[in-house]
Design goal:
It is a single chain. The chain is of the alpha+beta class. It has one domain (9-158): Electron Transport, Fmn-binding Protein, Chain A (Pnp Oxidase, Chain A). It is built from four helices and eight strands. It has helices at 13-33, 94-101, 123-136, 139-146, and strands spanning 40-41, 51-59, 66-72, 74-76, 79-83, 104-109, 112-120, 153-158. Strands 1, 2, 3, 4, 5, 6, 7 and 8 form an eight-stranded antiparallel beta sheet that branches. A hairpin with a 2-residue loop joins strand 4 (74-76) and strand 5. The termini are far apart.
Length: 161
């Protein structure tokens, strides 16, 4: 291995394909059961009890096609907060890039779906939320340590109808 070169399983192309496959299955099961099955992450810091998952549906920035990702989250009143960690890789997840292009999205938590508008937390908001997010899912700290990018924290606010 050369200086500065990193070899991590999360960066391997096969890993990304496996994650996409599991995510698609998780979305299907979550929707079919209103989150009763597939509504908790039971890996990493979420093992064995599990941490709550939501479904985030964005519009593809290039394709215009709806895309759904299962994500960990915390709630602050009506606001939902999530992290664009991508396991600490050097690239932001596609769902985050989609939100940058079109912040209108939909969030499903259990059986409840809501239209939301996303924005990236300011540095001050991120600094205030990060300890709470790490307390919720300790692996976020190691993800941030793995990458040079500042992992974005995303704030999702309900859209008034």
């Amino acid at each position: 291995m050369k200086d500065g070169e990193r070899t991590r399983g999360i960066d391997h192309p096969l890993t990304a394909k496996v994650i996409r496959l599991f995510s698609r299955a998780n979305v299907w099961i979550y929707r079919a059961t209103s989150g009763k099955v597939g509504g908790k992450l039971r890996m990493g810091a979420g093992f064995p009890w599990g941490l709550p998952l939501m479904l985030l549906t964005t519009t593809g920035r290039k394709s215009g096609v709806s895309r759904t990702a299962p994500l960990l989250y915390i709630e602050e009143g009506e606001r939902v907060v999530c992290v664009a960690s991508q396991g600490g890789t050097d690239k932001n997840p596609l769902w985050y890039l989609n939100l940058l292009a079109n912040p209108e999205c939909e969030v499903q938590i259990g059986a409840r779906s809501r239209k939301m508008r996303a924005r990236t937390a300011t540095p001050e908001e991120r600094a205030a939320l990060w300890p709470r997010l790490v307390a919720h899912y300790a692996d976020y700290a190691s993800y941030q340590a793995r990458t040079e990018r500042v992992i974005p924290v995303v704030l999702l606010d309900p859209v008034e109808t």
